[in-house]
Amino acid sequence: MDIVSATRRIDSEWTGSIVPCLESYIRVPNKSPLFDPEWQAHGHMDRAAAVLVEWCRSQQITGLTVEVIRLPGRTPLLFAEVPGTAPGEVLLYGHFDKQPEFTGWDAGLDPWTPVIRDGRLYGRGGADDGYAVFSSLLAIRTLEEQRLPHARCAILIEGSEESGSPDLPAYVEHLGSRLGTPDLVICLDAECGNYDQCWLTTSLRGNLIGTLSVDVLTEGVHSGMATGIAASPFRILRGLLDRIENVHTGDVALEELHVVTPPGRIAEARAAAAVLGGTVAGKIPFVPTARPVSNDPTELLLNSTWKPTLTVTGADGLPALGSAGNVLLPRVALKLSLRLPPTLDATAAAARVTAALERQPPYGARVRFEVGSSLAGWDAPPLAPWLERAVQSASQDFFGRPALAMGTGGSIPFIGMLAERYPGTQFLVTGVLGPNSNAHGPNEFLHLAAVRKVTGCVAAVLAAHANRGG
Ligand SMILES: [Zn+2]
User: Fold this and answer.
1) What three-state secondary structure class fits 10?
2) Which of 369, 402, 415, 433 could link 191 by a cystine bridge, Cβ 3.0 to 4.6 Å?
């Protein structure tokens, strides 16, 4: 592959046609169904798909077909196919649904207005994960223009990822043989430790979400009259949470939710921590006095990729501060989000957490833990030697630095699904969700220099895949 001309080609396409298109895409508030139950009536999903499809269809790639598939009642799915000029099959994955707005965007920025500042394209959904379809097709096009062979490519861009991919299994079923039997899956929806080299994601944590509710009274009562007689539901909740998490250390208290971290993954975390150092914690927006739970970057990386963790993400039954009177509340409910180690059985974890929370309710209160979803994580199979070599040389060629690997604390449901379906498949899971890019939070941005280099790396890996032999 001619790196110089590939770089030039990729850069000019990003600047000339992709950025303007991504700007249109950012303007569409196509929130994932979980955050916009009326998504069908609102029509944003269809509009976002239309923006992407128009660009895809204009690509000069031999035999390219692009379609939007709509199964009844499900978010649309963008599916593209490119016939192979070499043996093998590749599946490229991304998603085009978005997280909700969230608060705290800086002055001059907001989720639905694209703004370019300091080489970063701000706005919701650009980095997570609008860019994926552009990088995928541009990588293939780059090969075609250099007359380099590539395997058959199927590109699947789903519309329900941010809701836990509820629509995806039906589409995988529907597409059947059109998905092929990929020997390589490329997923462009992952993190990167920095914007200076290619990052391979080698594991994902699972995710268990549920609502823990405590009912003590049938209605709120004057707190002067009732406290001391009835327990507060908030105090009961505190005690229940102590059953599953050590309040002093943050360690998940249920032994069954831990796994032994494979030695190879510990070594990867050490290598990544040596490069990232203070930025592992530095990427987190602490208030000036707050500090991370450890000063050791390796420990922080392993904590956030291989350890179970708990966080409370929402509450019901707690009045907002301005309208909080002296009332003993009748009921409080919390949304719990647990991240699970990559290799843990998520269904068993859900049952274990439910049992721990619901057994022997204090004061006979009505305690319920309703599981919303439990998704398993993923631990990558060992990298095939050809892929290892390809990723290293691609990172050197486009970034000028070696590639690194690390686990990711988040979840991509599709990867686990595919790994189960195609046990022999190799995975290239990478992305541009690096320091401060803040997918899901305020000030989400796409790092424009890094995304162009990642696009180059995808092209290089596709080229190497076509030449992998045996
Ligand atoms: Zn994503």
Assistant:
1) helix
2) 433
For ligand 1, the distance from its centroid to the CA atom of residue 279, given in whole angstroms, is: 22
Gap from CA of 161 to ligand 1 centroid (Å): 7
pLDDT 10s digits, 306-344 = 999 999 999 999 999 999 999 999 999 999 999 999 999
How many angstroms separate the alpha carbon of residue 428 from the centre of ligand 1?
15
178-to-108, 194, 422 alpha-carbon distances in Å = 44, 35, 14
CA distance 418 to 411: 13
User: Which residue, chain included where needed, has tokens 């696009």?
Assistant: 455
What is the whole-number distance in angstroms between the Cα of residue 97 and the centre of ligand 1? 8
Q: Which residues contact 58 (CB under 8 A, 6 or more apart)?
A: 17
Number of H helices, E strands in the chain: 15, 18
Percentage of the chain beyond pLDDT 70 is 100
* Residues 6+ positions from 430 with CB-CB distance below 8 Å: 186, 187, 188, 190, 192, 198, 199, 200, 201, 454, 457, 458
Cβ neighbors of 77 (< 8 A, separation 6 or more) are 68, 69, 70, 71, 156, 157, 158, 159, 167, 171
| Helix or strand holding residue 304 (H, E) | helix 297-306
Q: Find the 101 Cα to ligand 1 centroid distance in Å.
A: 14
Ligand 1 mean position, distance from CA 119 (Å): 21
CA atoms of 19 and 15, how far apart (whole Å):
6
